[in-house]
């Protein structure tokens, strides 16, 4: 059941801002431990963009109601069907046919793919073509709990939104516990772009993806672009990488996580001998390529 009250509010805000500025991407990958929350958030945005009421999205006007009940011609939901564990290629082909149609009511159409990790390989590849050639005004939302289960080629064609799992206050204490000063923590503001870049980089390393070297450079450029506190941001990136590895450790992926943590220790030493941030990221990317 869709529920516009059970959304990720920060993430909905991010999408709302993009919509208001006319800057929605053509494809999003919404990653959330609670997939229902991500699905609700996608529908929240779709209702927001189509709502006919004053307090958008009200969830009660005719447009919202048709969207939420699955009866809006511009909104397509693909999900695992009953008696099936996967999303098959014929379901994605349906989307392809839909892609040729113009929006019936609004200025664009919306495709929502729930449980995107259940796409079969042929279905994922068919989707790839669809994401490659967004000829029609379409916004696609892919919903999944774990980005590692999504083909890297799909991930790279989407804008990834990670739903936050912890409140800001506990994040602050986490950073303080990991060696940042209060002054440095105060410099870390609006970190969602960096958070996403770090997570993406980490996933590529774990998958031995040669593109990690490109992401290393993008991440370094992103850190350089921050208005203040480059050193604080660099520290922040290393803490995030360590947290990801620790998470993996508790998830039972012991060998790989331990190897990664050992590399981070190595990098700690290299940082103390003034090896630059990008060089250290490169070191990781090259080491994990094999
Ligand atoms: Zn409405």
From TrEMBL:
Gene3D superfamilies: P-loop containing nucleotide triphosphate hydrolases. Pfam families: DNA_pol3_delta2 (PF13177). InterPro entries: DNA_Rep/Repair_Clamp_Loader, P-loop_NTPase. It comes from the Bacteria. PANTHER family: DNA POLYMERASE III SUBUNIT DELTA, REPLICATION FACTOR C / DNA POLYMERASE III GAMMA-TAU SUBUNIT. This is DNA polymerase III subunit delta. It comes from Lactobacillus nasalidis.
């Amino acid at each position: 059941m869709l529920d516009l009250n059970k959304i990720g509010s920060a993430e909905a805000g991010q999408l709302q801002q993009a919509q208001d500025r006319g800057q929605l991407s053509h494809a999003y990958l919404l990653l959330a431990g609670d997939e229902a929350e991500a699905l609700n958030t996608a529908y929240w945005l779709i209702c927001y963009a189509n709502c006919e009421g004053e307090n958008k999205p009200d969830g009660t006007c005719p447009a919202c109601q048709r969207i939420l009940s699955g009866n809006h011609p511009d909104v397509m939901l693909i999900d695992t069907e009953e008696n099936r564990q996967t999303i098959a290629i014929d379901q994605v082909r349906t989307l392809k046919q839909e892609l040729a149609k113009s929006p019936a009511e609004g200025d664009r159409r919306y495709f929502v793919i729930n449980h995107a990790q259940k796409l079969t390989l042929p279905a994922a590849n068919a989707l790839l073509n669809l994401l490659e050639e967004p000829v029609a005004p379409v916004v696609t939302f892919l919903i999944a709990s774990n980005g590692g289960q999504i083909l890297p080629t799909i991930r790279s064609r989407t804008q990834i939104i990670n739903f936050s799992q912890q409140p800001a206050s506990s994040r602050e204490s986490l950073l303080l516990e990991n060696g940042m000063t209060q002054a440095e923590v105060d410099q870390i503001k609006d970190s969602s772009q960096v958070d996403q870049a770090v997570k993406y980089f980490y996933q590529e390393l774990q998958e031995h993806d040669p593109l990690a070297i490109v992401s290393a450079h993008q991440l370094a450029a992103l850190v350089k672009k921050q208005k203040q506190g480059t050193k604080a941001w660099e520290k922040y990136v290393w803490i995030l990488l360590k947290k990801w590895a620790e998470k993996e450790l508790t998830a039972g992926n012991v060998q790989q996580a331990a190897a990664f943590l050992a590399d981070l220790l190595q990098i700690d030493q290299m940082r103390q001998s003034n090896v630059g941030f990008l060089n250290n990221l490169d070191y990781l990317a090259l080491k994990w390529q094999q």
